[in-house]
Specification:
Layout (H helix, E strand, L loop, with lengths): L2 H21 L5 H24 L3 H19 L6 H18 L1 H23 L2 H7 L2 H8 L4 H4 L6 H22 L5 H23 L3 H34 L6 H33 L6 H28 L20
């Protein structure tokens, strides 16, 4: 495409669109119809120029024109409590449900890795010796040792806040770094499973695995599920870069990225609940069976939330993405 000829042919239309946008609400009915037509044409022109030219100044001007025209044509709206309710009851659970083919296998495989690491560490004294000196290991795993006192080492409220912050950061890293071809997400998952495997191995070698599980399961079920969902979403985001399917790589990444952003907000709330359990239930004086029951109940509630509410929303077409009117229009690729 000869860019100079193209610009000469369509400059008048772009100037006219800019003039109509400046007039704002003072447009007549005919002028409003003309603005819509010019908006559609300019969007097509922008698509053609982006695919065949590297003129950043022209692309920037048309991008701004299209954005302003779209805002004028579709209007703007403010977020409301109704939007928040819709997100919590349909958008977020639908997004988690639709990504289940990513995070469920991630959860299963990660759990197997943690169990194998725990078995390997617990049955190989030389591996334990490489982790710490025998005396230090005894201090960590004995009754009243570090593994037990960790959950009551700080006031419950501040500990819950610290746990929530740390876990939210881990989940956010999985979501954000997934775009880098999935590799950082796999590394973050491995580090988490290694940390869990070390605890399983050391406490099992000391004959106190039941105590360790009694401390981890109340909050760990929900906490790890949230991390697995974040990791699965990050892997899905990374796969959109590797194999975008029938969409362009930019469009596929934008779709998965918007869903991941919503997922981050929802998972922050899930991890907040997990942090409350870890801060107030795990170190409490409740019997082990009662603490584990609370953890299982929280996990089952989340899974029911995802599979019942999320499944219902997904079946009627909710993807967890923004509503169609709030998304950038997908520009045609031909005039």
């Amino acid at each position: 495409m000869d860019l100079d000829v193209f610009v000469t042919a369509h400059r008048t239309e772009w100037d006219r669109l800019e003039h109509l946008l400046r007039r704002g609400r003072r447009l007549t009915g005919a002028e409003a119809d003309e603005l819509v037509v010019l908006y559609q044409r300019t969007a097509t022109h922008l698509s053609l120029i982006q695919s065949s030219s590297s003129d950043s100044l022209l692309t920037g001007r048309l991008t701004q024109l299209v954005a302003r025209a779209r805002s004028t044509v579709t209007g703007t709206r403010k977020a409301s409590w109704r939007d928040a309710a819709r997100f919590l009851t349909t958008g977020f659970p639908a997004a988690v449900y639709r990504s289940r083919h990513w995070w469920v296998p991630t959860a299963v495989l990660s759990t197997v890795v943690a169990a194998l690491l725990g078995w390997w560490i617990g049955t190989h004294p030389e591996v334990q010796a490489a982790i710490a000196a025998p005396e230090d290991l005894r201090v960590m795993t004995r009754p009243g040792g570090e593994y037990e006192t960790y959950y009551s080492s700080h006031p419950a409220a501040s500990f819950a806040a610290q746990v929530w912050t740390n876990n939210a950061q881990a989940a956010a890293l999985c979501l954000v770094l997934g775009a880098f071809l999935c590799i950082p997400v796999i590394w973050i998952l491995f580090l988490n499973m290694l940390n869990l495997g070390v605890g399983i191995g050391l406490m099992s070698s000391a004959g106190r695995l039941d105590v360790f599980l009694g401390l981890v399961l109340p909050h760990g079920l929900l906490e790890l599920t949230a991390v697995f969902v974040a990791a699965g979403t990050g892997l899905r985001l990374g796969w959109a870069v590797i194999d975008p399917g029938p969409l362009s790589r930019r469009t596929a990444l934008a779709q998965q990225g918007r869903a991941a952003l919503g997922m981050a907000i929802g998972l922050a709330l899930v991890l907040f609940v997990s942090g409350l359990i870890e801060g107030f239930v795990t170190p409490s004086g409740l019997p082990t069976w009662a603490r584990i029951t609370i953890g299982i109940a929280a996990e089952l509630a989340f899974l029911a939330y995802v599979y019942i509410l999320g499944g219902r929303a997904a079946r009627v077409g909710d993807t967890g993405d923004l509503a169609a009117v709030e998304r950038s229009a997908e520009l045609p690729t031909a005039a």
